Amino acid sequence: MQINPDKYRAVVFDLDGTLYNNKGLPMKLILGDLRNMWVLGAERKARKQIKGQDYQSAEGVYKALFEKMAEVKKSLTAEEARRWYEEKYMPLQVSVLRMYFEARPLVTELLEAMRTRGLKCILYSDYGHEVEKLQALDIDPKLFDATLSAPELGGLKPSRKSMERLMEKFGLDAATTLYVGDREDTDGDSARPFGIEFVNVKQPKENWDELLKAFL
Fold this sequence. Notes:
The chain is an alpha/beta fold. The chain folds into 2 domains: 5-22 and 103-215, 3-Layer(aba) Sandwich (Rossmann fold); 25-100, no CATH class. It is built from 9 helices and 5 strands, in the order E-H-H-H-H-H-E-H-E-H-E-H-E-H.
């Protein structure tokens, strides 16, 4: 695809699968907590059921997520789901990234080049612990003007309301914003309704190189 770097004033980046290749991540998360792999399965199913909906706040999102997990697995309570998520699952994600994964080639150079051009760089993840994950990948969080999660904005991707709040919060204009992600059903469907140009770094995989060529 053709990317015109002079067109943009802001770039929104997804994190997982975008700033690093997350191939093999699900299995490493399972192996990292075999005892609770059934809870992980409940989280994946619950997440799919609530994605795209607006809950107005992070607490609303997580309340819905944990209650839905308890519905999926009757032996699990919402409070147990919350405790597992906060105390085991999210810290495990960070530690697995630190041990087994690395940032895509020239991520730091790309972000520095964008900032030199005066572009606003925003990290918009579907999960929390964005700063810790960036640090685990040796990416300086200060390279972003802001790092935030979709739950902070009230709904998991592709929540239209969450994207609206993101755009309002940072004064983004759809015509001059680029969205870089790795999934059509979350990142792509977050960007397209607003007319924001979307680059999928996995489809085709050469898109990452095209992004580097455009800005470096």
